[in-house]
Every structure is written in C-alpha cells, then in structure tokens.
C-alpha cells in the first residue's frame, strides 16, 4: 500500500465539500506537469496529480510494469477520500484513469466525470509498439508523440537518465488492453488535438463505446500534446464541464 502523500499530490487539507480532480500522467510524465492546473482551479476544483514511482521525487523507486498492480494501489488511495471526484488522464494516463474508474465503480464509487485526453480506447492494441525496440529505434519511435523536449534530446546524459523511465511506461501501456469495451456508469468527455497522429478524431469518438451515460468530445489546436499547446482553452473547457457535471446527478 502506498500512502496518499507519495501517490496523490496536493491532497493535504482538502475540504470534505470540495470536488477533487485526480490527474494521471502521460508516459514519462510526473505530477509537476499539473502545477499550473492547481493554481488555475484554486478552490473551484482541488487538483490532485497522481505521482507514479520512477519520476521526480520518486525517481529512485521502481516504476510499475503491470496495470492491475498500479490501479489497485491508486484505487486504495482514492477510496480514503469521501469527496465527489473527477478523473483526468492524458495518453497513457487515459487508460489508467479508465481502469481506476472501473474498479472504483465496482466499489460503489462513481466519478462525476471521466476525461480521457489524447488517448485511444483501451481495447485496441497499439498498432506500432515501440517498447521492445533498441535504444535508437525507441527514440525514433517516440518522435510520433512530440513529447521529448529538445534539451533532453540534445543531452546524452539526460537522455540516458530518462529513457528507462519512459520505456517502462511504454511497456506498461503497450502490454495492457482489455478484450472488449466495458461501459462505465459515469459520463465521459474525450478530448484530442486536431493534428494528433496517435489519437485521431476517429479514435477520440470511440470513447462513446465506454459509457452508458452522457458522452461528449472536443478537439483542440495542436498535436499529441495539445494540452500544452492549447492549455488555456483546455483548462477553460475542463472548468466549464466540471461545473456542469458536479451540479448534476450521474
């Protein structure tokens, strides 16, 4: 069991009346990405990033390679909160968020809204897996995701430091997929980038197969990391939709 303080960030002193948005990382990403989101939403929505082992202050810990182990630890931590909640996950984080919500619903906890961002639906295996490739081939494969900063690409030391973490996340992501869609009780919002080569509009729309409740989708300007490129509009939409779904019954 991983304690909340390590796995769930920014969770101290949350009012029982607050709605929490648990945010799941993309491959290689950490909780620090959501620091601006915490400030943006302030008291309107308590943003609690999930900090997986193997990154930032947890860099010395072994990363997860198995989805079910990860999901069980996250669900155990979230179950300690009685608050209403929203789930947000980008890319790999979308698949984690889906499995977390599925297990939470089995425990009679239902999100006000699940937001799947830049993520293909889980039951379709990765058509071009890269986790098994050589170092150079793996690096070339990562170009599809537009997610590695130039300063890391140009620094061999930094690259050698980050590659094992990113590869572990891709092993986790690519080795997991259910056989068929399973419908969540909660409503689903799927968002993507209009130039994303990994999660196209058709991929985003397929999240409709994963809920028995309301489904909506939106496209933003940008590629796979449109959440950085068009961040202001992404945050505005999340704010709008969170208020809409917090104030309605699922």
From TrEMBL:
GO molecular function list: oxidoreductase activity
Question: What EC number(s) does this enzyme carry?
Answer: 1.1.-.-
Q: What class of enzyme is it?
A: oxidoreductase
| The keyword Oxidoreductase is assigned to this record | yes
Look up the domain of life of the source.
Bacteria
Alphabetically list the UniProt keywords.
Oxidoreductase
Thioesterase domain ranges (all copies): 20-241
SUPFAM superfamilies the record matches: alpha/beta-Hydrolases
Query: Could you give a single Gene Ontology term from the biological process aspect?
Result: lipid biosynthetic process
Give the Pfam families listed for this entry.
Thioesterase (PF00975)
Q: Which family does it belong to?
A: Belongs to the thioesterase family.
State the protein's name.
Linear gramicidin dehydrogenase LgrE
Q: Which organism is it from?
A: Clostridium symbiosum (Bacteroides symbiosus)
The gene that this protein is the product of is: lgrE
């Amino acid at each position: 069991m991983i304690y909340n303080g390590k796995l769930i960030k920014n969770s101290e002193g949350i009012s029982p009346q607050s709605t929490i948005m648990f945010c799941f990382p993309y491959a290689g990403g950490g909780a620090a990405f959501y620091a601006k989101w915490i400030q943006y939403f302030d008291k309107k929505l308590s943003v609690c990033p999930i900090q997986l082992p193997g990154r930032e202050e947890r860099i010395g810990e072994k990363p997860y390679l198995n989805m079910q182990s990860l999901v069980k630890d996250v669900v155990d931590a979230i179950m300690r909160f009685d608050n209403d909640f929203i789930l947000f996950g980008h890319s790999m984080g979308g698949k984690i968020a889906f499995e977390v919500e599925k297990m939470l619903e089995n425990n009679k906890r239902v999100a006000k809204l699940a937001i799947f961002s830049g993520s293909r639906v889980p039951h379709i295996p990765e058509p071009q897996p890269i986790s098994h490739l050589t170092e150079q081939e793996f690096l070339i494969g990562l170009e599809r995701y537009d997610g590695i900063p130039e300063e890391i690409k140009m620094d061999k030391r930094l690259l050698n430091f980050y590659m094992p973490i990113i590869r572990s996340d891709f092993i986790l992501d690519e080795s997991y997929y259910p056989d068929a869609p399973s419908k969540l009780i909660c409503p689903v919002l799927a968002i993507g980038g209009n130039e994303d080569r990994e999660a196209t509009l058709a991929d985003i729309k397929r999240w409709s197969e994963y809920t028995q409740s309301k489904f909506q989708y939106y496209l933003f300007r940008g590629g796979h990391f449109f959440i950085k490129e068009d961040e202001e509009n992404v945050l505005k939409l999340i704010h709008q939709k969170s208020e809409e779904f917090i104030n309605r019954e699922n």
